[in-house]
Design a protein that fits this description.
Distance between the termini: 24 Å
Structural class: mainly alpha
Strand content: under 5%
Radius of gyration: 26 Å
Number of strands: 0
Largest sheet: none
Helix content: over 70%
Keywords: Membrane, Transmembrane, Transmembrane helix
Length: 103
């Protein structure tokens, strides 16, 4: 459960980074486009969107990988709980039959 909390926190931080990056990036992009009258800036208009899209894809990929890791840990935790319940039932049945032992 601690691992799940850690992964949840990492996912939240990645999503926050995504929104902070885009707010910062779009602010810079807007201010630079408003203030520029240069012809070279107009010829290279595709660079900022390309950087934004590539960064977005990387962050989305990382969040997806963390989600997959979260689901894997969640399944492992569920499996451990099921195994513990089965072990508890077996111990109860053995005790009902009169067997005594220490774990």
């Amino acid at each position: 459960e601690t691992r799940m909390d850690t992964i949840r926190r990492e996912i939240f931080q990645s999503c926050c980074f995504f929104f902070i990056f885009h707010s910062f990036f779009l602010t810079i992009l807007f201010t630079s486009s408003v203030n520029s009258e240069d012809q070279t800036c107009r010829r290279k208009w595709w660079i900022p969107p390309l950087v934004s899209v590539s960064t977005s894809l990387v962050i989305i990929f990382l969040v997806q990988m963390k989600l997959c890791r979260y689901w894997k840990v969640c399944r492992q935790l569920q499996r451990e709980r099921t195994d513990n319940r089965a072990l508890t039932r077996c111990i109860q049945e053995l005790r009902m039959k009169g067997k005594s032992f220490d774990l």
